[in-house]
Amino acid sequence: MNSRWTDAGAKEAIDRWGQFHGQHFALRVYTARLIGDERTLVLHGGGNVSVKGRTKNILGEELDVVHVKCSGRDMALLEPADLPALQLDNLRRLRPLQQLDDESMVNQIRTNLLDAAAPTPSIETLLHAFLPHRFVDHSHSDALIVLTNQPNGETIIREVLGDRVVIIPYVRPGFDLAKAVAEAVDAKLNAHGAVLMQHGLVTFGDEACESYGRHIEIVSLCEAYISRRVSSQKPRAVDRVSESSATLAARAAPMLRGLLVTKDDPSAGAGTASLQRCILEWRGSNELRQIIGSDRAAEIVSSGPMTADHTIRTKPWWMFVPSPQWSDPNVLRDQFRAEIAKFRGRYRVYAGPIGNELGDFDASPRVILLPGAGFFAAGPTLRDARIAADIAEQTLIAKFDALSIGGFQSLSDADLFDMEFCDMERKKLRRPAGALAGQVVVISGGAGAIGAGIAETCADAGAHVVVTDVDPDRIASVVGRLNGKHGNSCAIGITIDVTNETSVREGFDEIARAFGGADVIVVNAGAAHVAAIDELSVADFRRLLDINAVGSFLFLREGAKLLKRQGTGGNIIVISTKNVAAPGKDFAAYSASKAAAHQLARVAAIELAPFDIRVNLLAPDAVFGDSKAPSGLWAEVGPQRAATHGIDPKTLPHHYRQRSLLRTEVTPRHVGNAVVFFASNATPTTGAVLPIDAGLPDAFPR
């Protein structure tokens, strides 16, 4: 591993962050980010850093302080606010205590924050406080843990690192570990760092570049040792699957996602219980496929995590399906069901009584290895699933190296349990909120005015959103707005031409790989054309039938297939129009083609009800959109519709407002609100038509 320190980067850091607490603090942020950018050192909030200094309190008194990284913060993105200050002398006075439980320790940490509103610093705050050095860096280096987790790990560490480090047998993070490290360093003041067996690496120094440089040096020595000894022999493949990983992943994902669903009330009937869904993240590179398909895959899965910190994201063990029967979907589903049941049974025994005490307890696997397809990671949100997947991917590669040089010895179940169910660690986990939390909403024509409004409203309600359209640029614009508001794991975009059967089928395969499946299918893509019947060309009539009728059929059909494979019910919502009930002149192609889609949805409601898939329709009128997502349909037909009504095109929105009973504008968000209503299963309704037209007597349902 190469040092990424540069004098230019250090100067830039001082210029940028020196205004907060001085030069040392600025360099603390700088080197923390350098460590955070190394995926083999820390992932997603792992590791922690600190810097000691002096500051003045509100009375102007000088205080010795230690700035410690907040629990769960990503070091690669660290900001000054993520390093709150604590009164150092008060923390050091805790060291003579014989014991200090977690609750009391956290209370002392929060009591000594200079800012009472600051987020809680790392569980290892006292480790940083008890050490005498100005800078302390802590990571979970893959290379180091590969060596510490060898059966003879301590012997190897002494061989590789010599007198540079003190070695601490595994102790759970907290007060006891802080004391153990401090006492070992006191006895060896010239040490560059401390190796925490089966946990990670701590280095220290009086300058930022010194502590960081020691970290890189020690990790590099470990990497060099592994490189000299790791077997050059490729893992022996045992699967003989000819299909691509991507094809198999799309086949497996909806089955897995459906089987992983749990009910808040297991005794409730279909459609009445609140489902706890998960999102799946798929990884299937050639390297991963080789490892997972090797004769050592089962050994890798059974040997536990790299470090106990990972258990809150990946659980202590993973699910492994030894020989998936890819050619028979029914057998494959039975295999998945059996392995999930086996995992849940083992996990409940491991969790014991505490499982019944936790309101959010979930015994399902978080990482699922499928020879041929790669692996899936599960989480309540895509962000959580990606974190678990990143950890699992790094772990698979590192553990294969560990087995290649000798073996891998994880912590005991008791040690893993102790970390996984630590209150301070579990606070890093947050269950998503919102009426559509955990749901995946797929929208055709998602980049248009109505589609974008539906996407925004569903995202606001906690859903993950798939924006599909034929216009990549408009897709990118909508997805960019959603992710800018809700985070980069909220929405994705997929280019789908609803008139092309292959495009729709491949699009739904991509959705399965991206999220594991879907829960709400919004059939929205449409087009319009203005012409009297005796002037309407066959080509224009067929074009609208192709988009509005055939396109709706293809999107609904593939969506229904996915929902049925998933087996957890769902909602299909077809965006119809008031023109089905109250058509207008010169609008025959639009009205007839939308009527075909309307009738298709009614038939689908009958056919899909046995699978708890509800199909409902929305009938909006005159949705013009806004500057962010203007209506392409109205841009195309607006002038002609104005001519039909004998009015100025600029007054068209006013015309439609005034003709309604409520005299109000119908917005894309109004349509989105109706989608959220149906998708949240607020009422047991299917086959219904909900007008969203501000009141048009001619279009009243009858």
CATH architectural designation of the largest domain: 3-Layer(aba) Sandwich
- For the report, how would you describe the main beta sheet? 7 strands, mixed
Round the Cα radius of gyration to an integer and report it: 29 Å
**Helicity level:** 40-55%
What is the CATH topology assignment of the largest domain?
Rossmann fold
In percent, how much strand structure appears in the residues?
A: 5-15%
Q: What is the domain tally?
A: 3
The CATH homologous superfamily of the largest domain is called: NAD(P)-binding Rossmann-like Domain
Number of distinct beta strands: 20
Low-confidence stretches: 268-273
Estimate the mean pLDDT confidence: 91
Helical stretch tally = 26
Q: Outline, from the CA principal axes?
A: elongated
The N- to C-terminal Cα distance equals 72 Å
**Structural class by SSE content:** alpha/beta
CATH C-level of the largest domain: Alpha Beta
Largest sheet, spatial ordering of strands: 3-2-1-4-7-6-5
Describe the 3D structure.
It is a single chain. The protein has 702 residues and is α/β, with parallel strands linked by helices. It contains 26 helices and 20 strands. The chain has a seven-stranded mixed sheet with strand order 3-2-1-4-7-6-5, with helices on both faces. The protein has a seven-stranded parallel sheet with strand order 16-15-14-17-18-19-20, sandwiched between helices. Strands 10-13-12-11 form a four-stranded mixed sheet. A hairpin with a 5-residue loop joins strand 1 and strand 2 (62-68). The chain is elongated. The chain starts with 6 loop residues before the first helix and ends in a 10-residue tail after the last strand.
